[in-house]
Amino acid sequence: MEILLVRRDQQRNIAGDTVRLSSGVQELILRKLAYWMIRNDLTEVSLEQMAERVGSYLRETLDDTLDPASVARHLLVRTGLLRAPAVGRVDFVHRTFQEYLAADQLLNDDDLNFLIKHAHEDQWQDVVVMTSGRARDSERNQLVRVLLKRARKEKAHRTRLIVLAVDCAGNAPSLDADLRRETQTRAQELIPPQDRKQAEALAGLGEVALDQMPAPTPGLGSHEVEAILHTCRLVGGAAAMRVLAHYARHFDQSIARQLIEMWRDFDRDEYARVVLSALSEISWLRVDADWLPYLSCLTNLARLQIDGPVSSYKVVEQLESLHELTLVDPAPQLSGLRAPSTLRALAIIGRVEHRSFQRLLLPQVEELRAEVRCVDSSLTSWQLVAGMPKATRRAVTTVMTDSSLSDIDVEDLTATFPDLEVLSARPDYVVGIDQVASMLKRLKANTAVTTFRLEVAEADANYLANQIADCLFLHWRATTSVDEHGRFQATFTRHA
Description:
three-stranded antiparallel β-sheet; alpha/beta; Arc Repressor Mutant, subunit A; about 45% helix
C-alpha cells in the first residue's frame, strides 16, 4: 500500500499534479470505496459513480474544496490501486487490495456484526480472513467465536463457516487458546471430506487443508477418497501432488483413472514425475502428441495411444513396461520409433512413408495392426506390412489390415509371417460371400492360420450377416457380433 500510494511516484521522481492529497486521505477514500463496492456486490463502477462517492467522502475530510471528478481521476491514474478495464469504468487492480481496504474500513466502522452475519456469502469470504488479520485481539476472538457458533446452528452453511473459522485461526497473530483448540477440533469434523461440496470448502484453506488429510487406508470409503482427490485438484501445486502421490501408491485402477484425468490440472512434467510414476501400473493412457515428452518417467505404463504427429518417437523406447502401442495419425516419417523389449502389440493408423514404415525393426511384436496409406508410393496397406523387415515379421502371430481381401497374398502368407495364427481384415467395401468362402479355402490350403476375422461397417452388417448365416464353411466355424462402434465382425475358427 505504501509503495503504490506514496513511494512509486517518489522513486520515479514524478511530481504531484494539481490534486494535493495526503497518503492518509487517499487511503481513507479508497477504503470507503472498497467497502461500499463489496457491500453492494460490485466488481467495478462507472467513473461518474466513483466521483459521486468520492465527493461524499471528501465532505467527511478536512478538505471538501477539491473537485470530486478530479480526485477520482487522480486516484485512478496515480495510486496504482485502480485501473480502467473499459472506457469510463473503474475497478481495483486486484481483489486482494479491495478486500484489504474493505477490512480496514469495516473495522473502523465497527461493522463486525454485519460481517459475521454475511460471512457465508461468497463476496465476504476473503474479507472475513483479512479482517481477522487486521483486527484487535478482542475483535478477532469475537469473530472466530461467533463463526463457530453460527456453524453449530446453521447446517446449510456449517462447512463453510468452520473452514472460515479455521482459516482465521490459522492466520491469526494471536487467539484465545481455548478458541484455537475448538477450531482445531471442529476442523477434524471435516476431515476427510465426504463429498465435493465439503472438498470445495476445504480447498479454500489452501495447503492447510492438505496437511490435515488422513493417510490412505483401506478404511476410507471410495466417496471419501474421491473427495480428497477433488480437494487436491482444487488446491493444486506441489503440496497437492505430494498427497496425490501418497494415494497413488495404495489404491486400485479406479483411483488411477481419476489421477490420470487430473493430469491436465497440474504442471505436466512435475505431475508425471511425482504422481503418475507412483502408480503401480497405468493400464492404459491416451494422449495428444504434444504430451509425449512428459511420458519418459512412466516406466509403469502398459498401453499407450498417441494421437497426432510428433517430430520424434524416441521417448517410447524409455517406457520399459509398455506392452501395447497405438499411433493414430502419426508423423509419416515415424522418426525415432523404437520400442522397449516389452512391446508385444503395435497399431499404426494413418498416413506413412513407405521406407520409414518398412524399416521398423520390432522383433518382439506379436500383434501388428496396420491401417495405413502410403504418402509417397502406390503400395497398399498389405504390401507395406509384407515389406517390413524379416526380423519384425517372424514373431508376429496376429495381423490386422484394412486392405481388401484380394490384396492379401495368401499363397505367400506363411513365408511372410511364419508364425501367423490370426488374420483380421477391415476392408472399406462390402465383401461378397463368395470371396469370403474363397479366402477361407485358400487359408486352409496354404497356411496354419487358425482364426480369420472380417469386419465391415454398420451399413453392410445385415447384408453380410444374412449371407454368412445361410452358408456352411468347410473346415471353419463361423460366429458373428456387432461391436460398440456398430461394426459387424464375423469370426471364422478353424476346425482341428
